[in-house]
Write a structure and sequence with these properties.
Belongs to the cytochrome P450 family. The protein is mainly alpha-helical. The protein has helices at 20-24, 38-52, 55-79, 87-104, 110-118, 133-152, 155-160, 164-195, 205-211, 232-244, 274-278, 324-341; strands at residues 83-86, 250-252, 257-259, 262-264, 269-271, 342-346, 354-358, 360-365, 367-372. The protein binds protoporphyrin IX containing FE. The site of protoporphyrin IX containing FE has 22 residues, from helix 2, helix 10 and helix 12.
């Protein structure tokens, strides 16, 4: 993985896309994931990192993950004791609920709403919801489709070719609905904070972003220009980034460079082929086999003396995933609880995994047989 470059170093890897579709969506100057404006990216990323790296946030997040898992376990036992579930669908809702709760501070109930589609007797959703879960999930999917579509189809196709033009309008209209819903959540929480003297305030991301650089911020930073509070629109884009959480390890050359012996012009875009690296026999023994023990220290399958960057799920450098600790905390809690409490077997061990690529690889269906452990 050591590719020689004449001027390249990590500091070159600062900007993301300068794609005209993303420019039209306003994404290259907002939020974090696609933001290519160094100053605004740094400003936004600083607040998000500050919030999600705090020990209190992580502590609450782990507790929330545990309590939602127990709730999901109750739903499963209502459905039977030895039965088949689509784990991909449950997990999609589960991670949505944990992320939405830790982002907005309010419960989201998409696990419950999914249970209600399967159970003969429905459970009433407690409390009032600003957003109906399935509708919100559809709007998030629309956002992802819209971004990929704007990324790959030219302005001419998007706005002038019949059929495509209507599709573009539909995507944008739904995106406006998503924006409105997220702004409503922000305004509601802003009012809650202003009208209460609640201390200490909740540890969710929205609260941290709303109070940053205000008199309620106990960690106010004294350095630099980032002394102004964030606007509703700035907060909206950060929250959307967290709901979607980017995984594009992309970088653009700011000046001419020779990489791996070849000369590249400024502006050339590079995208690391992580999937290729993670499945390369050059770095991994039997890369196509599912051998989790390769990550266990001391195991006979342990992958030893790995080359730098042979395992790089969260990217690297300046744009390294800021949510990596949150993601790992959730995965560890989930794995321990799921396999500690249940016997889980693939319902159809011979059938291939059903997955699709919409910006990210996502598993669409994973039927498993699940039975509570007795001891
Ligand atoms: C297993 C789960 C996750 C994986 C595999 C993952 C992976 C990645 C990768 C590969 C990148 C691109 C890094 C680069 O360009 O070098 C990234 C960026 C990002 N991720 Fe994650 N991520 C995960 C979860 C999360 C979570 C839970 C959050 C939020 C709490 C998050 C927020 C972000 C953001 C905001 C960026 C953009 C960073 C920037 O451009 O400065 N990710 N992620």
């Amino acid at each position: 993985m050591a590719i020689t470059t004449t001027v390249g170093n990590r500091s070159q890897r600062v900007s993301n896309f300068e794609n005209e579709g993303l420019v039209e969506l306003g994404l290259t100057t907002q939020g974090i994931i696609c933001n290519g404006n160094m100053k605004s990216w740094q400003f936004n990323r600083k607040f998000l990192t500050h919030s999600i790296m705090s020990p209190n946030f992580l502590k609450d997040f782990v507790q929330e993950t545990q309590s939602l898992f127990n709730e999901m376990g109750n739903y499963w036992s209502n459905l039977g004791t030895d039965f088949q579930i689509d784990l991909a669908q449950w997990m999609y809702r589960f991670t949505t609920d944990t992320m939405l709760k830790s982002t907005t501070g309010k419960p989201f109930y998409s696990v419950l709403s999914y249970y209600n589609t399967l159970a003969p007797t429905k459970i009433k959703v407690p409390g009032l919801m600003t957003i109906e879960p399935e509708e919100f999930l559809a709007l998030i999917t629309n956002w992802l489709t819209m971004v990929m579509y704007f990324l790959f189809f030219s302005n001419l196709i998007r706005h002038y070719i019949p059929g495509f033009r209507q599709f573009t309008q539909k995507l944008l209209a739904k995106n406006e609905q998503l924006d409105e819903k997220v702004l409503t959540i922000i305004e509601e929480r802003r009012k809650d904070i202003e009208s209460s003297s609640e201390t200490p305030l909740q540890n969710d991301i929205l609260t941290s972003l709303l109070i940053a650089n205000t008199s309620r911020d106990t960690n106010s930073s004294s350095n630099d220009e980032a002394l102004k509070p964030l606007t509703n629109n700035e907060i909206r884009q950060i929250m959307l980034d967290v709901f979607i959480a980017g995984i594009d390890t992309v970088f653009q050359l700011s000046r001419e460079d020779v990489i791996g012996g070849l000369k590249f012009k400024p502006g050339t875009m590079f995208c690391a082929n992580q999937q290729g690296i993670h499945r390369s026999t050059q770095y991994w023994k039997d890369p196509e086999k599912f051998i989790p023990e390769r990550f266990v220290k001391g195991s006979e399958f342990e992958a030893k003396n790995l080359e730098k960057n042979a395992y790089n799920p969260f990217g690297g450098g300046l744009r390294l995933c800021p949510g990596r600790h949150v993601a790992m905390a959730e995965l560890k809690v989930l794995i321990v609880l799921l396999f500690g409490k249940y016997d889980v077997q693939l319902a159809n061990p011979k059938s291939p995994l059903k997955y699709s690529l919409v910006a990210l690889n996502q598993c669409n269906e994973l039927k498993v047989l699940i039975r509570p452990k007795t001891n």
